[in-house]
Amino acid sequence: MKREDAFYYKNLLMFGFSDGYDEWLNYYLETESPLSDIVLELSLCGSDVNKTISLLHNYCAEQNFDEVVSHDKLRLFFKNAYYLNRMSKEEVLSTMYHLAVNVGDPGDFDIKLWGSMYYFDYYYGLALDGVIPMENFDFAFFSYLDNGTPLDSDLIWRKSMKKKPSLLDKIKSILKR
Question: Which residue intervals of 15-133 are DSSP H helices?
Fold first, then answer.
């Protein structure tokens, strides 16, 4: 059993999503011979989600694993949930934030990896308040969701390039001619 997958399902289960977990566990139940300790223990959990989460957590803590793989699987989960209308943008942002907090404090986790999930909720609030342009936020958010492009906090603050010129801008342009 891959620890990257265990980390992925542990986090999904913590937030109430069981998408694919049973199929994942059944795959190992059918293909492992003899069963590993973790697969056997997980199979005995039944519907006790807290016990399952605890077992997966301990399994992940036993040995290092590739967090990049786990992170990308979680990002793709949010992408699919958003585009299939299973989650709104606000739900995706909130869940990503809480997931990043679960991974650890910003001082503890790999900021390049988990920082986007952590900070997008904050920047969305700023965009809703008009502090930063919503189009900048959307560009950054969908670039991350669709392609895994990390949040660039410098770019998100730039003024919109598609801004309609004000009357004063139009007058200045005419006077320059």
Answer: 21-31, 37-43, 49-61, 67-83, 89-103, 111-128
